[in-house]
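Work Package 3 (structural annotation) set out to generate three-dimensional models for the target panel prioritized at the project kickoff. During this period the team completed the workflow that converts sequence records into discrete structure tokens, so that structures can be stored uniformly alongside our sequence database. As a representative example, we reproduce one entry of 137 residues exactly as it appears in the project archive.
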Amino acid sequence: MASIQQTFRNIDAKIDKQLDDQMKVKAEEIAAFVVVQSPVYSGAYVESFSILKPGSGGGRSRSSDARKMKSRTTDPDKHRMIALNQMYSDIDGLENIIGEGFMLKNRSPHVRVVENGSSSQKVPKYNIFGAVRREFG
């Protein structure tokens, strides 16, 4: 009897691991989508994305004001790769996300300006979170 119960526990553990791995793959797809879709001026917005478990800490925040350059970066892909590597690191740290899922966060001080646009600052509406919802549901 004990061996049957152990067999079911082993099967259950394998299923949980496969589901967990599939959710991490989905999180990686979302991370890649976000860095491609995000505008890069100083790099602060794209580098402020985090992928976390619901209810966990505040996430990452970068400010353009804190950066020495006050003009457009000459290497936007560098900032995209930094952001992607940071989110992949977040994803690697996720454990047992079945049932809880994960969330995408951006704590950049100017997230609302980038998301919603600003005519006074001449920033178009990028709506990255809306694009993620449309693409991934």
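The first strand starts at residue 49 and ends at 52.
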